[in-house]
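Table 4 source record.
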Amino acid sequence: AGSEPPDAGRLASLARLARRVEPALVSEHLAWSTWQGAYFPDLLPFPRTHEALATIARNIDIVQNALGRSIAIENPSHYLRLEGHTWDEVDFLTELVRRTGCQLLLDVNNVAVSAHNLGSAPEDYLDRFPAHAVAEVHLAGHSQDPALGDALWIDSHDAAVAPAVWALYQRLIARTGPKPTLIERDGNVPAFAELLQEQELAAAVLYGQKTDSMHETEVLA
């Protein structure tokens, strides 16, 4: 996202790709990632102001009209307390849904990481999140910053899903009911059996199944 409308050429290419592969969902993070035609390989924060809300809603409308479908906006992870906010993040996302009809992709690990780094309550964030708009859920592992240690968590996708994140996931699904869930793992990939164990834990939360892995985490006991 950026202050300018989406690039017409890139958007046309995305529309062609979406027609070709017919994905279940097209999503983008709630972040600042482009400026004057340049695209940044990161998800940069921005002040959640009335102007930003109007700009992002406009851009979502442009993308949805071009694709002929609703898209999902994902909550990002935060690593510093940015000044100048007019809107709380949950209220900001809720208003985007109201204005554009978009859906939301809720990354539970991002909620945990952001709450830890900013000193807020992840449970409050989840309890106020617009459950009706959640189209997909993401889970992932996080790590500590090499220099700052536990003072700063990083959404690194290179570790197992933490027990605290499983607990938040269970809290979320109790509100929303079963939602398509993706477990992200980009580094330090373990043996397939360990990945399958996490899938079984997610299924246990989603559908109340009993699995061989359930005794290994207190949140599912």
